[in-house]
Design a protein that fits this description.
four-stranded antiparallel sheet, Alpha-Beta Plaits, globular, alpha+beta, Aminopeptidase, homodimer, 2 domains
């Protein structure tokens, strides 16, 4: 059967890629309101392709923010049901000047598709649409399928919780399947079993009530940029431990056995540094690079600005300085609690010479997939059959805030069957996705359906 | 005689203001190349007004950057000669949204002229043009006058040194008179006897060779913004002393007597803080607010940026972070040496995880006017006659880099007879200049001419 499916995939591969290109041409940037219409256009495009692929019904469901595309194909209520989650929105593409080709004009170079969203997540969720088509057209569909493709993942899925609450019946399923993560390499397939949570905040430091001449006032009036630098610098100690009181209280320490298992994932630090153009890496003392990204919470300034940032020199002592700061969380840290702890601490370290405003932006809870679940086993078998190797379970620094929500609201296990590579430069200029990964991913997804239904029927 | 001059000033006051408005309407921002033509237009405007005021000759002299306007009126070679320096270029006006009225559409509100450059320095140097006209038209001109009005003061007067070298003969004079500073208040006239030097640098911190996903790499790859914050924070210790090795070595400490004399200047800290909307001020331990701005060197971040600074949230670990940093210097610090010390120190504190680039932008030497000079005495007498009070000598945090150059290259003393107020918001939105200050300043300038020639003739 899988041969018929693979044959179909091979015959229609070029069309699959052409369709993906059409989707990648739509600049559906959810963070920036000037792309609002493009985001809607992308939603409509996804609905139309799902209908074309053969679902019973598909609709663009409005939310308080960007819409959710929902579709389903119910073969037979007694069959197991797979709920596919993905997102059609993308990160902002700037800085545009660093792209070798325009971010919304996809091109193939060296067997890679270059475009914003190629890997995150248009290229990855679209594999499910095409896998579904291939199974349906070849009579190889063995599970009911539901699609929930949202448009706010890159801005924290703020309206998805309400959507889940309001659509619990409709979203009933046996497993949630998501392709929005990476494998270690095409030689070493892997499945992400751990996802970090996120707490994202915006801070504003205000000094004088107007921009001042740095000569007339400098040295006597505290400079908001200098103050913000000092406050941010104090958020980590000399061992790169985060200094926010209570920050680590709920962090679940891994056993030596777990750390040893994770350490089995092949990793070449020299190659890693060379790829990034770095001469040294640094992070929390006492942990390896993979542990720093995978199992330890982190804090990064994602953006900072203040004063004169134009051409030439301006001797100004600015009234305000700003920063966007995010923390990646691990089980059992709670993003709301961390946001509260950060806010209280940040206010407490502000000197009397400034006023500080902290605005929680968005967050998400961390999640870990149970290794003994049928869902994980089916995914592992699918990879093994398609790639000829057992996938390595890994823990990823990335966050998919709503995975924890699925667990909490829908009570359904999630499997993160991603096919990207860390070198895909998601969220960066020149984002790419391998043509091989795209095609192989479609095949692997069809095999997940096969093994999942088989394991279910054994019960 | 001065009555005839004052009568003339009174009769032509409205025209003087109208002419100044025409000049203020020209957005001659020297820092931004897109205003290049406006800068040239301003130069031509100044030349034409000088010719109209009655100089023998006036020309716009090209330099490697923006041109210098030179003009002169030689009554008689045996008479003393006053060289007037000023600048027709202005600071960038952004942030535009904080202006109550457009920066290049001057308006009078509450007896103040609001516009970019109203006080710094168009309104102030133009007083000399009109004072000259008033003296010439009423037969009250007693000195030869030369005008050197440049267009690069706000970007460090980079080409003026060459200009001075090439025009030493032409610029011969007995004193250089500059109005580009402030008085304490209209009740308490003052003369700035000390000017700070400046050393302005741009720094760039580079981490990874591309923007990264802060989830995938955060915690394992050092973040250039966090690193830059830490480096900047370390530039001052807990007493707000600058930590750059050797920074204070050449600072001339004031005697207790000098500090006591400066402390005589009336200063209301509560009013100062209220004007700035501050609940506290802070600065170098062991010095008063006036000493921090007047006699102590300082360091300020004038601008900083990195990562995502647009709308919404982007979870990026940026490749680069940038800052513009300036230090205000006092006698006998040398701006080139300080730039070298800063650069060496900043490179030395950079961790191995980043590459740092430091680019010296521009600088200027500090200067102090000799109180026993005829020039200072004439200025003091002019203020006393016009304002009814002896002016207080003050030391100002501002920098006019080329004053030290005049001393060095032309060997001529400079008198800083400024008429602005600290509340004029120079370099900020809603810059203003009092109509009273403008008119009174013109009168004071004519009295300086009178007393300077009288004192010279006594010799």
């Amino acid at each position: 059967m899988s041969t018929a499916i693979n044959k179909y995939i091979g015959q229609h591969q070029q069309r699959f890629i052409d369709e993906l290109f059409d989707l990648l041409r739509i600049p559906s940037v959810s963070a920036d309101s000037k792309f609002r219409n493009d985001v809607l256009e992308a939603a409509n495009f996804v609905r139309d392709k799902l209908l074309a692929a053969g679902v019973d019904e598909a609709e663009v469901i409005t939310t308080a923010g960007h819409p959710v595309v929902y579709a389903e194909k119910i073969l037979d209520p007694v069959l197991p049901t797979i709920l596919v989650y993905g997102h059609y929105d993308v990160q902002p593409a700037d800085p545009y000047e660093l792209w070798d080709s325009p971010p919304f004009e996809p091109v193939i170079k060296d067997e890679n598709i270059y475009a914003r969203g190629a890997a995150d997540d248009k290229g990855q969720f679209y594999m499910h649409v095409k896998a579904f088509e291939a199974m349906l057209q070849t009579g190889g569909l063995t599970c009911n399928v539901k699609f929930m493709i949202e448009g706010e993942e890159e801005v924290g899925s703020e309206n998805l919780e309400d959507f889940l609450q309001e659509n619990q019946q409709r979203l009933k399923a046996d497993v949630i399947l998501i392709s929005d993560t990476s494998i270690i390499s095409t030689e070493t397939p892997s499945i992400t079993i751990g996802l970090k949570g996120l707490s994202y905040l915006a801070v504003e430091v205000t000094g004088p009530n107007r921009d001042l001449h740095s000569g007339v006032y400098g040295g006597a009036v505290d400079n908001p940029i200098n103050v913000l630098c000092k406050m941010i610098a104090s958020l980590k100690d000399e061992n790169n431990k985060i200094t926010i009181p209570g920050f680590y209280d709920k962090v679940v320490a891994l056993s030596e056995a777990e750390r040893t298992a994770l350490a089995k994932a092949p990793f070449d630090l020299a190659a890693y540094m060379q790829d990034l153009g770095l001469e040294a890496v640094d992070g929390e003392k006492g942990y390896s690079t993979l542990e720093r990204t995978g199992i330890r919470p982190t804090l990064d300034v994602n953006g900072m600005w203040g004063g004169y940032i134009g051409e030439g020199a301006k001797t100004v002592l600015p009234a305000k300085a700003f920063a966007k700061i995010s923390m990646r969380l691990v089980p059992d840290q709670d993003s709301d609690e961390i946001a509260r702890l950060f806010t209280a601490h940040f206010m407490s370290i502000a000197p009397a010479t400034v006023k500080v405003k902290v605005t929680p932006h968005h967050g998400g809870k961390p999640y870990v997939t149970p290794l003994d679940s049928i869902a994980f086993q089916a995914a592992s078998m699918a990879f093994e059959e398609a790639w000829g190797k057992k996938p390595v379970p890994t823990r990823d620094g990335g966050s998919i805030p709503i995975v924890a929500l699925f667990d909490e609201i829908l009570k359904i296990d999630t499997v993160l069957m991603g096919f990207g590579l860390d070198s895909d430069a998601i969220h960066s200029p020149n984002e790419k996705f391998g043509v091989f990964n795209f095609v192989k991913g479609i095949e692997t997804i069809t095999l997940f359906h096969k093994h999942f239904s088989a394991l279910k029927n054994k019960l």
